[in-house]
Amino acid sequence: MYSHRLIFRTSSDDEIFYLKNTILINFKHNRNGVSTSELNGGTCELYKSVFNQHLSQDKIDYLETHDVRDYLINECSLMDIDSNFSTGLITLAEMDNLSIVSKSYKNVEVTAISTAGVRTNASKAGDSASYWQKNGEFHFGTINIILLINVNLSKSTLMDAFMTATEAKTVALNNLKIPSQYSNGYATGTGTDGLCIFSNTDSEDVITNAGKHSKLGELIGLAVIESVTKAIAKQVWITNKSQSNVLVRLNRYALDINDFYDNLDCDKDQFIRKLQKEMKKQDNVAITTSVLNLIDEVNCDLIKKEDASVLAKKIVKENCNSYPIIVLLEYWINYFIQ
Are residues 51 and 143 in the same domain? Predict the structure, then answer.
């Protein structure tokens, strides 16, 4: 059995414990919920606990040849919780990088507990698949969110909350301009995300809508956005500041940068040293963003390629005073929309 360390208690007295590689939440009230887990996934009328677990290498090796559900049941036994009334998520993210955010308004409170890693698995809905499934295949969650709501929700309202939370996760990624690793687009999540949402069925306060027009929906959105944003910063050090960088922005539209450097008409080392001084300046980041937005518009068939090319070159010529940034942007323009 693992030792427990209490790290947070909600206003409803739900206790969040840190165990070895695991975050465990014991519910003090009867809770229904919806879960993407292999253990008691879907909707359920009674949950007593939920956990989020970091997978160490030995556990990854074990799962290569074992059933995920059986693994989760065994973990419940190690934590001394009833697997019949529990659900759990697994991830490569470290539990030390957990983010807990609570938002409340009058009688309603929402608590989001998130872990997030987005460097290798971020993707956009509609990107080319990385696998297809025939007889079952195991993948571990990267952005895992557990949402605790202190009021009483029906199954349909829980699904409302599920949609709102999922959209909020995407907002967090888009606010940070997280790129997909499988296309030139912005990520809407990762290929292996997990989400669990629970309401308090002991509460006499029944709420029937968790969509974006409702106050509950607003609280869900705010809690998830802030929690996921903080978890990303802790796990992979991506922040608003780190994303304010010309090279980071250009990296979303991947091409062979060695070809670019090989065709430079100047000293490569001097160029790179100058670029390092210029790439974080706000005006250069803004100009780069404007050019990339035009490339996006072409890819979405919103602007004709020839019009975008003319406008992009005009933006660079009239607004950019940095030689390395000009050379980089002209290369991107010629490559993607010439």
Answer: yes
The pTM of the full predicted model, rounded to 2 decimals, is 0.92
Phi, psi of 65 (to 5 degrees): -125, 10
Concatenated DSSP letters of 57-78: HHHHHHHTSS-HHHHHHHHHHH
pLDDT per position as a tens digit, 245-288: 999 999 898 777 778 888 888 888 899 999 999 999 999 999 99
Distance CA 203, CA 256 (A): 58
Pairing of strands 194-200, 144-149: parallel
Tally Cβ neighbours within 10 Å of residue 294: 23
* Residues 137 and 68 sit within 8 Å (Cβ to Cβ): no
User: Closest Cα to residue 251, out of 300, 186, 308?
Assistant: 186
User: Last residue of some domain: 240, 259, 293?
Assistant: 240
Least confident of 11-15, 70-74, 89-93, 254-258: 254-258
One domain for residues 134 and 185: yes
Neighbours of 89 (CB within 10 A): 26
Distance CA 50, CA 89 (A): 8
Residue 163 structure tokens: 């949609």
Number of neighbouring beta carbons within 10 Å of residue 301:
8
Through-space distance between the first and last CA atoms of the chain, rounded to whole angstroms: 63
Among the ranges given (79-93, 266-280, 287-301), the one the predictor scored with the smallest mean pLDDT: 266-280
Instruction: Give the C-alpha separation, 257 to 108, whole Å.
Output: 51
Instruction: Give the integer Cα–Cα distance in Å for 53 and 154.
Output: 28
